[in-house]
Amino acid sequence: MKVIRVVAIALTVGIGAGSTAMADGFKDCTKLDKASWKPASEAEAKAKALGYEVRRSKIEGSCYEVYGVKEGKLYELFYSPEDLSLKHTIAK
């Protein structure tokens, strides 16, 4: 019975670590309270000004994650909702 418990714990830890490793999102942009964030539409406008065709946006952790296409390639752009600075970009 003890062996089964150890295996179950090992699998649970392994699965949890695997999920974290598979996530490719950037999640730490600000410590500012959400009530003080600038509108997400302003992050989308910044992406458009850089030449991206914005598909959608969402909140990821404490970042605005904007999905955009540029030159036929999909990108994820992560903006700080505090000052709308671009923190990270991932090409898909």
TrEMBL record:
InterPro entries: PepSY. Keywords: Signal. Residues 8-85 form the PepSY domain. It comes from the Bacteria. The keyword Signal applies. Residues 1-23 form the signal peptide. This is YpeB-like protein with putative protease inhibitory function. It comes from Bradyrhizobium huanghuaihaiense.
